[in-house]
Amino acid sequence: MEKILVIDDEKPTLSMFRLFLEAYGYNVYTAENGTEGIEIFRTEKPAIVLTDVKMPGIDGLAVLQQIKEIAPQTAVIVITGHGDTALAEQAIELDAVDFISKPIKKEALDAALEKAREKLG
Amino acid sequence: MEILSQSSPAAMSDESDYWALVEENAILRKEIQVARKAADLTANLVVKQFEETEKVLHRFQVANAQRKAVLDSATRISIIATNKDGVITVFNTGAEHLLGYKAQEIIGKQTPELFHLQSELEIVRDRLSFKYGRQVAGLDVFFEYVAQKRLAPSEWTYVRKDNTQFPVRMTINILREPYGDISGLLFIAMDIAEIKHSEKALKESERNYRLLVRNLPNCVYKGYLDGAIDFFDNKIEQITGYSKEEFLSRKKNWFSLVHEDDRADTQEKFKKALRTDSSYIREYRVKSKTGNTIWIQDGGQIIYGENGEVEFITGAFLDITERKLAEKALHESEEKYRSLFNSGPVPIFVLERETLEILDANPMAEDTYGYSNGELTGMLFSALGPVDDIYESISGFDKMDWPRACVVSTRVRHYQKGNTPFYVRVTACPTRYKDRDAIILATTDITEMLEKEAQLLQASKMTTLGEMSAGIAHELNQPLNAINMGSEYLKMMVENQKKISEENLVEVSDQISGQVDRASEIIDRLREFGHKSDFDKEKVSINKSVRVAYGIINQQIRLQNIDLNLDLEKNLPLILARNTRIEQVIFNLLTNALDAVTQRENARLQGAKPAITIRSFLENDRVTLTVSDNGIGIAQAVLEKVFEPFFTTKEVGSGMGLGLSISYGIVKDYNGEIDIQSKEGLGTTVKMAFPCA
Questions:
Q1: Is B465 helix (H, G, I), strand (E, B) or coil?
Q2: Distance from CA of B516 to the nearest CA of A (A)
Q3: Contacts of B472 in chain A (CB under 8 A)
Q4: What is the pLDDT of residues B522-540, one digit of tens each?
């Protein structure tokens, strides 16, 4: 079973991700902030990471950079909020596979996961 | 009879012959005839004399009775007569009455010296002795005195039996026998004690009168029908510039000085006095010698002669120019204030100071409050609006420099007739009205101003919300996201005909309803914040207001990695304000603080982690709140302007520059103070303090 990590400071969002991704057959790990997420990433080495951009503490872009330093092949999908287009563009430049905007549509999530799997080969 | 008796013996001794005898007989016959005639005549005379004597006696008796009656009836007049030796022979009832002796103890026993003051007699005696160069003593004193004085009455002092004294006016006469021999002295004395007394009183009153005339500002005159006038002193010169001589010499006629506009009225008053009680008081203008107009008050009394003709007029002038000018000024000032009162563009009331009863109200007051003047007068002001503030300010009146007005309240709800509310600012100042302590109270209808202000506040609030919208949208997106994902998950499972575990179903439905609540809360907060607030004050917990503002902005601050610390003192007293307004102030201060720390972050200044701290506490009995940040701070030059409206340091388009000025206005409205302290590069603290409710 493929490991997937979701980092978001929103607990309700995390629990919904968990339901969705488990239904898709992933082994789901969640973290409520950047620091915790990177710790889990180091131990579990998930192939796919979904991370929120705006978070207290280490934000999503910093998480993305660190993960890329640890394991550049990781497929990172960033989650943006309302009107965070500039941040999404920055994330793509930092080699994120895709970005999805809240509220997250199933189609957008499916497309991003598809891109991630394509990248992973 | 004497001729006959002397001639007959001589004739008989000289004649002896016949012829001589015949002649003698003839002579004798003639003599007898003559004698007969003489005897007849004598008899007639005797009879007549007897008759005359009888008549005289009768007359004497009548006269005596009359005399006695006269003597007795003159009870105020003492009549004392003596014989030539000085022994008293007459002592009338008046003498008894005045001197206290009975006639029988005096008559034939005493001399008049008994009633005289020895000292007075001595003076007269010494003077006469000196004059004649010999001793004059005893009754001679009176005799010589009378010779000197020639019957002129003089004043003496009489001594009563009981030794009391009284002044008399006395005439002393010498009584003589029919042939001129002195037979005694007559003392007629009148008690003049009362006269003396009234004379003294008269003298006194005359002296007082003279003093009065001299010292009074009034100028006493004696006038005549033709306008001629006499003055008794020269006060007239001080008043008119004409000397009293100019009037006395008839060069100056008083009427000619009277202002022509006042002449008719002056004459009318005089005519009225003639018809009524002969006195008048009139006020008119006269022209002085130098051409000035002088107001005169003229009080006069018409004096009539024996035949009923006007003899003269006595009266007094008083220069009342100053009073008239003051009266005129007062009248003008009263007129001015009356017209200000009447045409005043705002409602003005005159209130009784203790009861706040309306004594008077201007037309604008009737207009604004919808009552007629008749209805307003006598009404208690409390029927129109709250009076507590007024009473509070009255207590400050005494300490105040009169007549500085004081603003009682800036926004008070008053009621028109029919209970329609409107908002006013109340201004009051102490005054006197018809000899009572009163308050002049003016109200300004500020409803429209308040509405405009509210609109501005609202606009400012909406601007703030607009500025916050990105953050709010982000916050609102979170629950929406969870709800959306939950429902899409359910849809997916159903579409794929997969079984949803009960556990997962409960989780999804719990999350959905929980996140709907969360979204509603955010919307409620926004709606509450955006709500247009009333003007009235309520009791507000400042900590609660802090939490509301915090609730709106918290998420945004947290996401920007800024520490927001709340240090709120529990059990703070409430304040009198409006909570939405206070929330707005706190919100404004928080957004400013947020900007300050964000700008510091952007400027990449070294230092501590960005932080905003809100503290509430009690200081000097005032509820105090501080909002501090460690942002970029404000330059000293800018600091002075931050409360000015439309002043902003933000980029054009990012704010109206009203935040702090509106906050200032709100804080002041609730009798609070707001103060800002800042160090450029270190941070800013805004402090506000409110009185406890």
A1: helix
A2: 12
A3: none
A4: 888 778 777 766 667 889 9
3-state secondary structure B468-513: HHHHHHHHHHHHHHHHHHHHHHHHHHHHCCCCCCHHHHHHHHHHHH
Which region among B11-25, B210-224, B335-349 has the lowest average model confidence (pLDDT)?
A: B11-25
Percent of chain A residues past pLDDT 90, beyond the cut = 83
| CATH value of B344-445 in 3.40.50.620, 3.30.450.20, 2.60.40.10, 1.10.3720.10 | 3.30.450.20
Q: What is the mean pLDDT of chain B?
A: 80
**Which residue in B468, B476, B478, B522 has the most chain A C-beta atoms within 10 A of its own C-beta, making it the best mutation to test that interface?**
B478
Alpha carbon distance A118, A96 (integer Å): 13
| Per-residue pLDDT tens digits for B314-332 | 888 888 888 888 888 878 8
Given this structure, which CATH class describes domain B74-197? alpha beta
pLDDT at position B474 is 81
Per residue in B254-291, pLDDT (tens digit) is 888 899 899 899 889 888 988 888 888 888 999 988 98
All residues of chain A having their beta carbon less than 8 Å from the beta carbon of residue B562 are: none
Q: Is the pTM of this model over 0.80?
A: no
> Which domains are delineated in chain A?
3-120 (3.40.50.2300)
For domain B451-691, give the CATH superfamily.
Histidine kinase-like ATPase, C-terminal domain (3.30.565.10)
Mean pLDDT of chain A: 92
Q: Do B552 and B525 touch, CB atoms closer than 8 A?
A: yes
* B217-326: in CATH 3.30.450.20: yes
For A15, which of B473, B484, B511 is closest by C-beta distance? B511
- Å between A50 CA and nearest CA of chain B: 15
Can you tell me the ipTM of this complex? Answer: 0.91
Contact state of B559 with A83 under an 8 Å Cβ cutoff: no
What is the reported pLDDT for B34?
58
> For residue B127, how many other CB atoms are within 10 A of its CB?
15
Look at A15 and B514 and tell me if their CB atoms are within 8 Å: no
Q: Is A56's CB within 8 Å of B491's CB?
A: no
Question: Mutation test of the interface with chain B: which of A10, A14, A16, A32, choosing the one with the most B Cβ atoms within 10 A?
Answer: A16
Q: Would you put residue B180 in left (φ > 0), alpha (ψ -120 to 50) or beta?
A: left
Q: Point out the residue among A16, A57, A103 whose CB comes nearest to the CB of B511.
A: A16
Domain ranges, ordered by start, for chain B: 2-67, 74-197, 217-326, 344-445, 451-691
Give the residue from chain A lying closest to B499, CA to CA.
A23
DSSP B348-374: EEEEETTT-BEEEE-HHHHHHH---HH
* Cα separation values, B421 from B369, B418, B446, B579, Å: 10, 9, 12, 22
> Which one of A19, A28, A100 makes the best mutation probe of the B interface by having the most chain B beta carbons within 10 Å?
A19
Closest chain B C-alpha to A12 CA, distance in angstroms = 6
